[in-house]
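Standup notes
- DV: blocked on the single-chain target, sequence here:
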Amino acid sequence: MLSTPPSKRIDKSADGWDLALTRVDISHAVNKMAKYTRRPGKNHFMALVHVLRYLRDNSHVGITFYSDLERSPIHNLLLKSASTAELGKEMFFTFSDSSWNDDVVTGRSTGCYLIVYMGGIVDHSLNMPSPVALSSAEAEYNEACLACMGTNHMSMLLDEIEGNEQPRQQIPLILDSKSAIAMGNSFRDTKHTRHILRRFHYVREEVDSGRFRLFWIKTDDELADIGTKQTPGPRHTLLTNTILVRVSDGLKSIKAAFAKLVKYKRGDSV
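- DV (later): unblocked, structure below
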């Protein structure tokens, strides 16, 4: 087997490979930086260093699953809103959100969904659906289709693990667009929706079959918003503190391991 010459090898930590299976709070940054792995410039390396510095300073957060859902920050968030209060005892549900026309080159929209089980994120995805959405509602609806597909896959896996003979029904799908919810709940096409590709009407089929239920939540409480745009500092902190929780155990050992790694990279004695 031929080996790559050392001078031609790519530093995986510099092109995002080590961050591919990433934390939710940096998913948007990693997704955008991944576009410039082939010919990165100085600004891209500065952005990478910024993300790595953020991880260093926030290595104490992680995902927690709760046997008592009343202790879950995500469930407490749902209980605050009248539109989602009935989901306070739901074990399995999905947040879905999308920006609109944020890619200045292609006009595509960045979407994100978060799948929650027992108060913790078990799967998430950040993507850019190929059709160019003509409205923000259409962008939200397109992402809801991908969220349905991802949730169905996770649901089948959980049913197999838990030994459920009957598949889950009435899975909540939470969006912050009432127009997208209206499109998903109705089979009626209008002049504003008849151009949408048929594959994205998978949402309608799943709602009609009773597999999913669509719920509205205000944008301030939409957790999937963390993956659709570069959120301001206070907003990012709020979302991160809801999705992830502080893990105090082992914090000192994590920082010590990081310091040891830095010394190793510099060539210092460890």
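- Follow-up: Residues 1-18 have pLDDT under 50 and may be disordered.
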